[in-house]
Design brief:
This protein is mainly α. It is built from nine helices and no strands.
Amino acid sequence: MDTARQKVVQYLEEAQATERALVRVLQSQIAMTPRGSYRSALEAHLAQTRDHASRVGRRLRELGHADNPLLALVGAAETVIGQVLALGKTPIDLLRGSGGEEKILKNAKDACATEALEIATYTALERLATSVGDVETARLAASIRADEEQMLDRVLREIRALTDAVVRAEVRGQPVYDVSTTGAADAVFGGEPWPGYDELTAAQVLAALGRAEAAGRARHVQAYERANKNRSSVLRAADSSAA
């Protein structure tokens, strides 16, 4: 492998490591975040982050960088462990220090810093790849960087509402944070909402939701869909039923 390709591979590996680490960070933040627009943003970005890691890994293979089976196994185990730790750690985090509203705002500020780091990572990768004539890697870096820029913009917009929530809770004494609506609480539902769910089309799920009376069932569908299939029509119906 020539020097230029080695350097591109190095930068791709760094980007992939960042994406894998971000998966665990997002899982932890989702576990602490109540249902709403900010958690929807985090959940969408979690799916996007997994896709980014996959695309970077595919490009590494195209460049002749063989996957290390042991590292792949460790990475998968870390993702599962990260999710478990996020869900278990959430109640402890919520009992320490300031209220839930303040913690969510701090998480959002941390998210801005993380997105800025990713933007810088992919900016450098794109520049490097362009300089050495690697058009495919440059195109990949530009595409992922655009996703990260959109996420940063969205989090910055969310910070306004999150700050308003802190003012209501911490200054005016009107807290609204409800731990029972967090990602950790929703995840308690566990696997499929009902047996055979994964084999159903969106239309069949919508019909079943229309017959269901319990809001809890709809919340289970919400959590499962966001973590797995992420079908917009089902999510809209579940949101309406769970309200």
